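Protocol step 4 of 6: structure prediction from sequence.
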Amino acid sequence: MNNPSRPGAGPDTAAIPLRVGGHPQPAAPRTRQLEDRFGRRFSYLRLSITDVCNFRCEYCLPNGYQGTPKGFLEIDEIRRLVAAFAELGTWKVRLTGGEPMVRKDFMQVARAVKQTPGVKRMAVTTNAYRLADCAEDLKAAGMDAVNISLDALDAERFQAITGDRRFDRVIAGIDAALAAGMDAVKINTVLLKGLNDDQLPAFFEFVRERPISLRFIELMRTGDNGDYFATRHLGGDRVRDRLDRLGWTPRDRGPADGPAVEYTHPEHAGRIGLIAPYAPGFCDTCNRLRVTARGGLRLCLFGNGSDDLRPLLAADEQKEELKDRIVAALFGKRVSHFLHEGDYGDTPHLASTGG
């Protein structure tokens, strides 16, 4: 039987009707709700505002940034884009990169996003190199949550993985975000066999007094990391087994939660999470879409190609056409990624799409 969720198999995905209440509807209707043909709704936009990164993480940009650091969406384009998504039911926006804070107008971008009607929650993913200096200003601009990349808990190992010496600044940024009163402070740690897997006890201890969520993320295969993936990939079972042995218990998931399965412990102020993209059912509750720093709509981190939205971001009068384009594009979203089959799409590295 043909699998319509696979490229080139079955009928044109754009022509497959959405079923509502058991009754087929016309393909790509002029609806005002972001829902794909599998019934998933999309309340969460991950918006890259630059693909430039000033770190050289060996699992992402081991040779440093090699792109062209210009041509990114301007503030007015960002405002129009976010407004269209918000009118389609998206209420959470995360600013990503690259490293979003390398943009000189980052604070203005943040204010513009949070002031958009319908946006209830704004977050940023950052390497935290500037966070110690701007956490209070970020909070004042409306930032609700901060995710910080931290792959080691000592300066030497941190430099080996990231190519950067600002370990102390990152730790200071984490504590500054907590002090500023952010609603949520989260740590993203990529599991790397032979590099940081021996630091699991230290990571658990890190959240004993800090009310943060530290999430371990399985290394993912992308277009340019095949050999590295084979050497460094470590399954999430290693973390899950240790959590079970130490008395951590799974936390009930909320309706708007992301893919992390979180664990709590009565002796720890913080939580431990696990993001395991190779686990069964990982994509079942997908609620996010991505737009690249130059305006490309990507339906999946591991998809192929993007739908160029930028021509429809030039004027406010294009909003309805922009919304129609976004809704229509959703009919091409696949049921899941196909990493298990060696299909990782055309993502060369995570910095190119905002992770």
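Step 5 (inspection) to follow. Residues 1-31 have pLDDT under 50 and may be disordered.
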